[in-house]
């Protein structure tokens, strides 16, 4: 039966990631008791958040870790990248299944974070085959291709029928937010790119293609995403459905790039004839980052924990423009807005304050 108690306990699965950290912060500020589930203990603990460790690919590990915890809200913000989409499907659907098997009986609402690969296809076919027209709408049918986001949704729906909880799916675009060691962290990756360029006296080169340089796009502030997920989980009367999640403004990278460069104190260089991927630009930069980290007394000398070149390259080299329609959430009552350039600026200030990048 659906839990209707007044228990204000929330579980954030993947609480050390970009979206998870923002959710933990927002939930604690709203007076929830918050537990954060992750594979390992957080290197940056959050005040008021109980940390729980488990291997989400192991059902028994999850059951043991969550024994005695009865969350009424469950937020699923975790994923694991594997070499093929079939492996992505097997692993990521299992993680959702294991989490819900352990928490479904107490859950009143479960919110699942996915993304725009729902409309673009998986990484190995990212925007190269059939895609949906922009702006993307939530009611468009699934693409005729295997996709781990679809498998995660299927697990959510099966658990909702079994345990009788309401649910929401949140399809964010590239998330701007704070986390270290996160695999999908483009804003921090660009800040690290700029720090290395600045240290070496080189220009800040746009790595993507002409479509992304000239086309319309949008992004998602992690704080806005957290507010939308909590709104969907706590607003009475909402139907169980999916919501696109983006800041509400749109931009072109040819406009944004020089402004980011100004925030990061580097000289911008835009698209010129061909993509210049970060995996090529930044190859072999580990010693340079370690030296910079030592010289500037930065908190993280491991370049792999603060920059994910492949992810920024994949986002900035898609062959189609990419932005979403927000009508569904707005008409349902969620009207929050974030200015994307301001989101970048706020994150860069936090990264400097915490000594992730130089001042």
UniProtKB/TrEMBL annotation:
The keyword Oxidoreductase applies. Residues 10-244 form the NAD-dependent epimerase/dehydratase domain. It comes from the Bacteria. GO terms for molecular function: oxidoreductase activity. Its EC number is 1.1.1.-. Pfam families: Epimerase. Keywords: Oxidoreductase. It is an enzyme of class 1 (oxidoreductase). SUPFAM superfamilies: NAD(P)-binding Rossmann-fold domains. This is SDR family oxidoreductase. It comes from Nonomuraea marmarensis. The lineage of its organism: Bacteria, Bacillati, Actinomycetota, Actinomycetes, Streptosporangiales.
């Amino acid at each position: 039966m659906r839990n209707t108690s007044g228990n204000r306990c929330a579980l954030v699965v993947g609480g050390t990631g970009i979206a998870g950290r923002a959710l933990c912060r927002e939930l604690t500020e709203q007076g929830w008791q918050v537990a954060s589930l992750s594979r390992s203990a957080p290197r940056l603990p959050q005040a008021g958040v109980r940390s729980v460790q488990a291997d989400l690919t192991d059902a028994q590990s999850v059951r043991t870790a969550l024994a005695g915890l009865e969350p009424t809200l469950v937020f699923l913000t975790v994923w694991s990248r594997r070499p093929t989409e079939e492996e992505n499907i097997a692993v990521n659907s299992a993680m959702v299944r294991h989490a819900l098997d352990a928490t479904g009986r107490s859950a009143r609402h479960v919110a699942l974070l996915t993304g725009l690969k729902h409309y673009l296809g998986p990484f190995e076919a990212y925007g190269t085959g059939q895609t949906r027209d922009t702006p993307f709408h939530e009611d468009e049918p699934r693409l005729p291709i295997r996709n781990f986001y679809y498998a995660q949704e299927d697990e959510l729906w099966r658990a909702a029928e079994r345990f009788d909880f309401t649910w929401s799916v949140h399809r964010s675009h590239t998330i701007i937010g704070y986390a270290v060691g996160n695999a999908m962290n483009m804003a921090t990756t660009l800040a690290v790119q700029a720090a290395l360029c600045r240290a070496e006296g080189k220009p800040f080169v746009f790595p993507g293609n002409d479509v992304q340089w000239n086309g319309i796009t949008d992004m998602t502030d992690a704080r806005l995403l957290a507010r939308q997920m909590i709104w969907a989980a706590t607003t009475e009367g909402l139907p169980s459905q999916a919501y696109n999640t983006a800041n509400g403004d749109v931009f072109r990278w040819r406009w944004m790039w020089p402004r980011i460069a100004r925030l990061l104190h580097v000289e911008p260089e835009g698209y010129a004839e061909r993509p210049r991927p970060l995996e090529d630009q930044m190859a072999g930069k580990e010693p340079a980052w370690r030296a910079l980290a030592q010289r500037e007394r930065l908190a993280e000398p491991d370049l792999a924990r603060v920059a994910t070149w492949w992810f920024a390259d994949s986002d900035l080299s898609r062959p189609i423009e990419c932005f979403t329609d927000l009508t569904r959430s707005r008409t349902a009552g969620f009207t929050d807005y974030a200015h994307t350039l301001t989101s970048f600026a706020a994150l860069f200030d936090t990264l400097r304050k915490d000594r992730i990048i130089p001042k």
